[in-house]
Every structure is written in C-alpha cells, then in structure tokens.
Prior knowledge:
- The chain is an alpha+beta fold and 221 residues long.
- It has two domains: 7-46 and 158-217, Alpha-Beta Plaits; 64-145, Alpha-Beta Plaits.
- Helix content is 24%, strand content 26%.
- The chain is built from six helices and ten strands.
- The protein is globular.
Amino acid sequence: xxxxxxxxxxxxxxxxxxxxxxxxxxxxxxxxxxxxxxxxxxxxxxxxxxxxxxxxxxxxxxxxxxxxxxxxxxxxxxxxxxxxxxxxxxxxxxxxxxxxxxxxxxxxxxxxxxxxxxxxxxxxxxxxxxxxxxxxxxxxxxxxxxxxxxxxxxxxxxxxxxxxxxxxxxxxxxxxxxxxxxxxxxxxxxxxxxxxxxxxxxxxxxxxxxxxxxxxxxxxx
Length: 221
C-alpha cells in the first residue's frame, strides 16, 4: 500500500533545536485520540558528546550575528561510513583546529551519513576543507562549507533515563504527510513495512496541507 507524501527521518533536523520542535508542535492540534505522554524529540537530540570545550550548550537561541559567525566556523561532512563515531570524526578534524561541536546525522543503520563540525575559529573550518577525499572507514568523505549553524540544545528536552533513551531509539519523526490521510492508514503503512507500532501521533495546523507524525515502534527496527 502506498502512502502519498510521506517523508521519514529517524535523525531528523540535526541542526534544529529540540526546543524549537517542542514549541512548534505544542500549539498544533492533534488528530490522534490516543493518550500520548510526551512529544518524542528526534533521536539525534539524545546524543551528547564531549566536543563542546569552546562553549556551553544552552537552551537560548543565538543572536543573528552569533549564528552567522557560527556558520563560518562550521563545515558539512558527507559520505560518512556507518562505523565512524563522532569521537573518531572529531579526532580526525581536530588536526585542523579546536573542535567545539561534532554531530553526526542520518540513519545509524545506513551506510552513508553526514555531519556538522564546528571549530573554535574560521581558520580551522577553512583548513578542514582540505580533508575532502580522506578515507574514513571504507569511504572517502566530502567536506564543504556549511550553510547552517549547529543550534544549541536545551538539556531539559533530552531523555534523562535509560527507559526514555530506549523509547527515543524506537521512534521516528515523519514530515510531509497529507492531512487527508487518516491515522489508521499511516499506522498500517508503517506496520506493513517496519513492524508493530506502539504509539502514533499526528500533528498539523490550519495553514499547511501536510502534517507531521511521531511513530513509536514496539521494537527497534
């Protein structure tokens, strides 16, 4: 069965703040009648690393000038082998300068992923561009100037317990779902491909023709 206009991303919006996501979705009407205890942030937001020596992650939106400066100090890395960790990636790029943040995005089960790496200064970011073509794992990575900054994550929106982390690992965030598609059709679509769905929540507004969904599976697919 084909479900029109569905885009899924298990590690969605890597550079978007989870605070933005919760703020945006809290005000939207819910099409689901099922009880739902919390909004699931994308699993990407559950990741923490030790590469923020240069700044603290705070739940405050940076000013425009700060954001533009952060963009200049950030590079976009693609074609990352699935076995390459954030720790390993940061170690490789630390030869170019001090790494203050490193976030790998994408499906952890996919062969190829991408990442954003922020340096303490733009000199490090420019030096990092020379690492394009470096073999990490089994594939050469591509390194380009980033067009966006890594926004800070508010720690209070991150999972705090092992149970919450496990729940997030079984949840995907989906966008571009036609509002005319009912909840049971969305659920049957995912169950037919990915496995039994434990909970599903559709969120939309009165402006856009599409809505978003959080789908929690019984088992980690």
